[in-house]
Amino acid sequence: MNQLVERIFVNPDVCFGKPCIKGTRIWVSLVLDMIADGMTFDEILKEYPQLKIEDIRAVMAYAAEMTRERYVELPQQAVNI
What we know:
By secondary structure, the chain is mostly helical. About 45% of the residues lie in helices and about 5% in strands. Strands 1-2 form a two-stranded antiparallel sheet. Helix 2 (about 30-35) crosses helix 4. It starts with a helix and ends in a 14-residue tail after the last helix.
């Protein structure tokens, strides 16, 4: 789980400080919305070819931890995107 969550980052200077997939400006919430709308992982990967299946799994792992009311510590990342 920790290896997956390491694929998520928060930087106050990137996307208003919202959790994003590392190396992108794709919000965790966007991917969750696509899954909730019924998109398959393959459809998401086709729409966003810069993502990997592990990124989508990381989004789900992060969301699962957040629903357990656990605070997930994410590293601050410099803006290199």
